[in-house]
Amino acid sequence: MKLSAQRNKKNQHGLLALVSLILLLMHTQLQATATDSTSINIQVVHHPQQQKIKLTGSINSNNFRPFNIYKEAERHPPAIKLGTFGIHSNIRGKCQLGFTSTNQFRLKHSHITNRLARYQVSLDKKRIGIHNKLISQANCHFDSSTLELVILDSPIILKTDEAGYFWDTLMITVTAP
Amino acid sequence: MKFTKTLLATGLLFASSSIAFAATNSTDIQINVTKDAYVNLIGTAVGSTNSFLTSDIDNKTVSLGTLGLESNSQGNCDMTFSSANGYQLKHTVSNAVLVNYEISYAGVTNSATTTNTVTQSCNTAASSLDLVSPALPAVVNAGTYSDTLTVTVVTQ
Question: Chain B residues with CB inside 8 Å of A39's CB?
C-alpha cells in the first residue's frame, strides 16, 4: 500500500516535469519570433496652373537671316532647312502645333505679285500638310527638331531676273492640353 | 537489574538518535533568464510621409528614404510589402488612378504583379527605398494622388 503511494507520487512528479518542459519549449518558441511594421505615406500633387511652355531653337530667333532660296532649292531639293525648333515644357503628353501663314503657305515675290511658289512645312522630315491652317501634334517637351520648308512647285518658278525677294511669314502656336 | 534496564534504554535512545541524524532532503531550483526577441525597422522611411509634384515622379525613380533592420536575432527576416491601393496612386477625391508604380528595395522590385517579400539578415544597414514610376498620362486632373505602403518584418 505504502509502495503504491510512493509510485503514484513519482509518476506525478514525472508528469509535472514533462508539462514544465513542454511549457518551457512553447515559451521558447513564442519568444523566437519577433515582428515590426511601419506605414509609409506617398502623396503626389498635380498643379495644372504651374504649366510652363517655351519655344526653343534657332527659328525662335528674331534675327532670322534671309537666304538665297533659289540656290538652296537647287542644292537641296526639295527641302530647305529653316532651322531648329523645340518646346521646353513641364507639361506631359501631346501639345497641338498650329502653323499659320500670311501668304497661305506660298512664297510671294516682293514685286511680281503673281509669282508664287507653294511650299509645305516639315518637322523632322514629316510633312505637316498644306492647308490654310496646319495643325499637328507633338510632345509638349522635346529638344530641337529640324523644321524645313518643302517647295512644292518647280524651283524654276523661283528663278527670275526681276530684282526682289520671295517672302512669307510663318507663325507657330503651341497649345497645351 | 534496574541499572541494566536503564542502560539498555539509553542504548536504544542513542541508536534512535543516530538514525535521525542520517535523514536528508533536497530540492531543485531552476533559474531561467529569458530575453524577448525583437526586430525593428530602421531608417528615414519608417513612418514617413513623402510629398512630390507630378513632374518629380514622371517617368522617374524617386527615393522614399532609407530602410533597414536591427534585431537581437542573428538569422534572416522576411520583409513583406503591401499597398493600400494596390501600388496605384489614386486621386483623394475622385479615386482616379494616376499611375501604377513599383517599389524597389534591396535589389527586389515589389509591385501589384511581382514578389512582395524581401528576405535578408535581421541586422541590415538602412538602404534606399525607391518609388519607380512610368510616364504619367497625357491628361492629369488637378489634385492630390496618394497611397500608403505598409512594410512588415518577421524573424524567421
Answer: 47, 148-150
